[in-house]
Amino acid sequence: MGCVHGKSCCGDSSSSDDGSRDYRELGFIHGHRKNVLAQRSLKHVPVPSHNFILEYTFLSQRGYYPDSPDKENQDSFCITTQLQGNPNVHFFGVYDGHGQFGSQCSNFVKHRLVEKLSNDPALLEDPVQAYNSAFLATNQELRSTSEIDDSMSGTTAITVLVIGDTLYVANVGDSRAVLAVRDGNHIVAEDLSSDQTPFRRDEYERVKLCGARVLSVDQVEGLKDPDIQHWGDEESRGGDPPRLWVPNGMYPGTAFTRSIGDSLAETIGVIAIPEVKTVQLTPNHLFFVVASDGIFEFLTSQTVVDMAASYMDPRDACSAIAEKSYKLWLELENRTDDITIIIVQIKGLSNSGTSGVGSDEINGGGTVMNSRTGTHEISATPGSNVYRSVRNSLSDLHSCQHVASVTSAAIEVHSPACPRPIE
User: Fold this and answer.
1) What are φ and ψ of residue 8, in 5° steps?
2) Which of 47, 155, 281, 315 is the most buried (most CB within 10 A)?
3) Domains in the chain and their CATH numbers?
């Protein structure tokens, strides 16, 4: 797909190495050249409305699967600058495919989601509604007009839309976006998304209402008591997380509660409705990270931010974070997941560039808009948990069905591999 409604281009993991990609000369990357896509140089894009620059780079590493050494990377990603020809509107997205046709799903969604956003005439008037329409329409299109079998395959999606000095973060699944916030002499990680898994009580209760059985693999196989509906927290869960199963079968076994695709899982509550979070940038916001759960399975958000902040060059930061994650996977599992990370630095944003934000609000870390109520909430301190996840109305959340909408394109890449069981 060509460049549409924005400054964008596409790359494919199966393309030959023609020198257009620079695989950083670290030992880890050097030893995995054929499995890595990394950007040759830092890219810069200005945001003239607020007189700052976004500097970004990416890396995607195919997973290690000893039983399937030739599996392709089911992660993909998309970076589109100047959506709708607007120099103040930019898009970053990471998609983690899963299931037999996960690679096809993530690549389909990579193209279609940003196209729909870019073709939506109401994008700048109501970005939250545009996001909802784009996610639901893409999900419907994957199912009804593509030739991809999404019954047991699909993709998660974590996306950041920059409009002027405001971030709109839309998420389905368990990949993650994280913002680095200066707090005195410290840099604090603020999650811009909340992993949608059965570990979350609200998501657990929603899918149960839709008929899902929520059990770990050991529980569904009768090795542990299925009546114990508690699995600890996500940070310390170990290797047997709660999964979703149909009432009378041992499938589909998804470890997430929202995705695009997964039509069978949709019958038990897995939905494509995104949670959207809105954050107004301030000079305290240094950079943000958008990454698949291959990064965050064994690294906390704070660890990722700390590592990214310790490198002058974000290309080196991408390599170091990917390497650390890869090594932890091999230490704790007999395989790794696919790993994809985008780092976007926010350079030159000043107090005078944040229109309508007073000094108290800047020191507080910014303004958060709740897209459900339309109200603004001012955070108390940059380190506080202020970037609240925006949830859709209860009726939407309890719905197991979706609708449709409309269509743009991006700088994108995906690399060779496969996902975990079905996550």
Assistant:
1) -155, 160
2) 155
3) 27-194+271-414 (3.60.40.10), 201-266 (no CATH)
CA–CA distance, 340 with 55 (Å, rounded to integer): 17
Q: Which two tokens stand for residue 316?
A: 């080196």
Give the whole-angstrom CA distance, residue 406 versus residue 29. Answer: 39
Burial 340-370 (b: 16+ CB within 10 A, else e): bbbbbbbeebeeebbeebeeebbebbbbbbb
> Rounded CA gap, 115 and 146, in Å?
15
Average pLDDT over residues 163-191: 97
Residue 53, beta-bridge partner list = 46, 347
**What is the pTM for the complete model shown?**
0.79
State the average pLDDT over residues 249-262: 96
The strands making up 252-254's β-sheet, listed across from edge to edge, are 213-215, 243-245, 252-254
DSSP 219-285: HHTTSS-TT------GGG-TT---EEE-TTSS-EEES-SB-EE-HHHHTTT-B-PPEEEEEE--TTE
Pairing of strands 43-47, 52-61: antiparallel
Q: Residue 169 carries which side chain, given as an amino acid letter?
A: V
Q: Is 264:152 a contact under the CB 8 Å cutoff?
A: yes
At residue 36, the pLDDT reads 74
Q: At 31, is the pLDDT very low, low, confident or very high (cuts 50, 70, 90)?
A: low
Which pair of tokens denotes residue 274? 């995104």
Report the percentage of the chain scoring pLDDT > 70.
72
pLDDT of residue 362: 23
Does the pLDDT of residue 384 top 70, yes or no?
A: no
For residue 154 the two structure tokens come to 């699909």
pLDDT of residue 69: 87
**Token representation of residue 93:** 């997205």
Contacts of residue 280, defined as CB under 8 A and 6 or more positions apart, other chains included, come to 165, 166, 167, 354, 357, 366, 367, 368, 369
CA distance 159 to 292: 11
Burial class (CB in 10 A: 0-12, 13-18, 19+), 235: exposed
- CB contact at 8 A, 169 and 192: yes
- Burial label, 31 (beta-carbon count in 10 A; 0-12, 13-18, 19+): exposed
